[in-house]
Amino acid sequence: MKNWFKTYLQLDKDIESNFYRKKVTSKFILLFSFIILSVLLIGNFIYSNTAIFNVTLTLFILMSIILALPGKQRKYASHFVLHFMALGILFVVYFNQGKEYTPIWSFLYTFLVMSLYGHKVGLRISIGFLTILLILLFSFTSTTVTMMEFLRFTMVSCFTLFFAYLAEILISRTFEKLITAKSMLEQLTKTDALTGLFNRRHFDEVLPQQMSAANRSDELLALAIIDIDYFKNYNDTFGHPAGDVALVALANLLKIRMKRGNDAVFRLGGEEFALLYQTKNEESALKLVEDIRGAVESLDQYCEIETQITISAGLLLINANQHMTVESAYELADKLLYQAKNAGRNKVIISASNVDFSLT
Fold first, then answer.
1. C-alpha closest to that of 113 among 77, 78, 158
2. In the chain, what are the domain boundaries?
3. Which residues, in sequence order, are CB contacts of 300 under 8 Å at separation 6+?
4. Which residues contact 110 (CB under 8 A, 6 or more apart)?
5. 194-219 pLDDT tens trace
6. Terminal CA-to-CA distance of the chain, rounded, Å?
7. Disulfide-capable partner of 190 in 144, 153, 202, 312 (CB 3.0 to 4.6 Å)?
8. 3-class secondary structure, 358
9. More confident residue, 281 or 63
10. Fold classification of 200-350 (topology level)
11. pLDDT at 17 over 90
């Protein structure tokens, strides 16, 4: 029962946005209304109050139908039920002339409205409802409700409204800070601290997604593995701080060149980078990486790096006909990179998009 309750109210879900609270509140309103109607149905059946039993039975059947609807179709069901509850409170107060503590149900309505609509809209709705309720109660002050009872209820209602409003503001702000902190933490887990590029962890997440999307759309996907030539010698000669400056300069260049919405740039570790992008054909895929290679040659003219640096790259073209796994794609691109290294460095070695690769 406990697990079902948590699952129904989505208490086992991660908090993705402030809308999460509204979803939980909506589900609680429907569940709470169903429970109340069930209790009233049993009570009226036992005490043989036929008229009220028939009304309750009708409402119970209606609520059962609402709960049975698919999620999208009952999108506004909680709003309807909540305001129907408010109307029910007013009718009960009217028929009981304010007796038997019937007005206190308005406190529950106030908190539910605040949670469902937020503090701004919820405050306006609650003020409107309480105004009607207080006018109704005031009309009974000469018969069933004393003036002192009316004043006490008015004061308690105002305090309840104030604290419901205050609680909603504090909860909303807490949720916003929590969501912001979670977003920042997620960003940190997939970003390289030095260059600001995506890191190897995010590369391992994105590569299978991009390959799957390319297979479905029958598009050509390019994976380029880039490595700075003789970077160990650069670090040994100029020091690691100077090496970091060179890494940042190259990262910034890659960011500028890879500017389309579906382009992705990663720092895989050390001096190794990866580019992932969709391309029309082999020529355009190669031109992009060759342009980057050429720009790196003159990077020392525009950035504060100690001397000229060059890069080598392995460019793998992936299409749906190759039936390539994620592991083999990275391994093949890495092999192409080392072919570029062995061919003299400062080169780009590209695979053919029509070759069916297989690794042994």
1. 78
2. 2-187, 200-350
3. 306, 307, 308, 309
4. 126, 129, 130, 157, 160, 161, 164
5. 999 999 999 999 999 888 887 777 77
6. 52
7. 202
8. coil
9. 281
10. Alpha-Beta Plaits (3.30.70)
11. no
Mean of the pLDDT values across residues 73-93? 84
Tell me which residue has tokens 């580019």.
275
Instruction: Please provide the size of the chain in residues.
Output: 360
Is this model's pTM higher than 0.70 or not?
Answer: no
Identify which of 306, 309, 312, 287 has the alpha carbon closest to the alpha carbon of residue 296: 309
CA distance 16 to 153: 39
DSSP readout, 62-126?
HHHHHHHS-TTTTTTHHHHHHHHHHHHHHHHHHHHTT-TTGGGHHHHHHHHHHHHHHHHHHHHHH
> In this predicted model, what pLDDT tens digit does every residue of 126-183 receive, in sequence order?
999 999 999 999 999 888 888 998 999 999 999 999 999 999 999 888 888 888 888 8
Q: Would strands 272-279 and 264-269 be described as parallel, antiparallel, or unpaired? A: antiparallel
